Amino acid sequence: MPQTPPKRHTSLRFALILALTALIGLLVHETGHGLTAAALGGRFTGLYVWPGVEVWPHPGASFNGKWDGQIGVATYLPGADWEADDWRYGLVSLMGSGTNFLLAALALGCLWAFRPRGRVRLWLLAETWMFLDLTTYTFFPAFGLRHFIFVGGTSAEPLEGALRLGIPAGVFVTLVVAGSAAMGWGAVQWTVDGGR
């Protein structure tokens, strides 16, 4: 009688996929800032990761500014017509975490719509948890914490961006709480019972 191979440990596999997704999420976050600036008439000039190593456009180059505990930085030049208090700065600030939130919502939608199995399910589920980028970037700085408690920046980028766009703080915080609760519920449902 042939022996069946040992069942792979799904929890360990998911933890590894989640860690890799978080690293990719860092690049997505910073690219979200840069591409938003470029789409609004600015110029995306660089993407850096801790401890200040350039990933794009000159891999391996060092960051020239002060590296203040961040795990990633996008640099850009504003458009020539941008005013000092321009709304476009706000959208650029918002779309780092906003890009991760939108991709997380898309991943959750794919889980519910297609109900995949295997690795695709694990990757989509890991991406769904990246909604926490918006949550932590919005709330942790209010308590004197960095974006990821011990590492990351100290500014509430999404909230500051929303304020520059004219969205009242209370409205934005309510939207983040509601969106995070919905995403968290969906992610927990899929983590616990596969969305049944």
Note the beta-strand portion: 5-15%
Q: Indicate the radius of gyration in whole angstroms.
A: 19 Å
By secondary-structure content and strand pairing, the structural class works out as mainly alpha
Biggest sheet statistics: 3 strands, antiparallel
Which percent bin holds the helix content?
55-70%
Mean pLDDT: 93
Whole-number count of domains: 1
- Backbone shape: globular
**Strand count:** 3
**Looking across the biggest beta sheet, what order are the strands in?**
2-1-3
Number of helices: 6
N/C terminus separation: 35 Å
The helix/strand order is HEEEHHHHH
Stretches where pLDDT is under 50 for at least 5 consecutive residues are none
3D architecture notes:
The protein is 56% helix and 9% strand. The protein is built from six helices and three strands, in the order H-E-E-E-H-H-H-H-H. It has helices at 10-39, 87-114, 118-128, 132-139, 157-164, 169-193; strands at residues 43-49, 53-56, 72-77. The protein has a three-stranded antiparallel beta sheet, covered by helices on one side. A hairpin with a 3-residue loop joins strand 1 (43-49) and strand 2 (53-56). Helix 2 packs antiparallel against helix 3. The radius of gyration is 19 Å and the shape is globular. The two termini are 35 Å apart.
Describe the secondary-structure layout:
Elements: H1 10-39, E1 43-49, E2 53-56, E3 72-77, H2 87-114, H3 118-128, H4 132-139, H5 157-164, H6 169-193
Antiparallel strand pairs: 1-2, 1-3
